[in-house]
Amino acid sequence: MVRQRVGQDIYRESLMDYWGGACAVTGIVIPELLRASHAKPWSECASDAERLNVFNGFLLVAHLDALFDRHLMTFTETGEAIFANQVDTTIRSKLGLASPMCLRWLRQEHLVFLRYHRSEFEHRKASS
User: Fold this and answer.
1) The whole model's pTM is what?
2) Which of 8, 24, 100, 124 is placed for a possible disulfide with 58 were both Cys, Cβ 3.0 to 4.6 Å?
């Protein structure tokens, strides 16, 4: 457990640095509101290198992190947010989520991890 927390602190700092201390989508710069989100979950990574890979995640404000972590939101190959059916326009409006929402930038190295996340999103969507 201690090893995991130390690694997560390193991961968060790496994402803070990579994203300039701002949410990857909204640009919000309040550190207390930002979460280091994994596209491929920590527990499913094959190695520490994969767990700590800055391209395996996004720095997101807490409500986007909650949606992303639970596969209620994912991103396309071009970085546009996709929401699960239960997160309809009414709920998105109440959460202050404007449409369209996009990652501020996206590199080729993100895509393998996003594909993994999107496949989980699609799998859960199909089972609900």
Assistant:
1) 0.91
2) 24
